[in-house]
Amino acid sequence: MSLLSVNGLSVKFRQRHQDLVALHDVSFSLDRGERIAIVGESGAGKSVLGYALVNLLMKPGFIDAGSVQFDGRELTKLSPKQWQGIRGKKIAMIFQDPMVTLNPVLTIGAQMIEAIRSHTRIAYKDARKLAIEKLAHVRISAPSQRFDQYPHELSGGMRQRVIIAIALLLNPEIIIADEPTTALDVTIQAEILQLLKQICADNGVALILITHDFGVVSRIAERTFVMYAGRIVEQGPTLEIINDPQHPYTQGLLNALPQMALPGQRLNQIKGNMPPLNDQPSGCAFHPRCPYAEERCRQNPPGFVYSGVSTVACYVVEDMLSEFSQHDGDDSYE
Question: Which parts of the sequence belong to the ABC transporter domain (predicted)?
Answer without folding.
Answer: 6-254
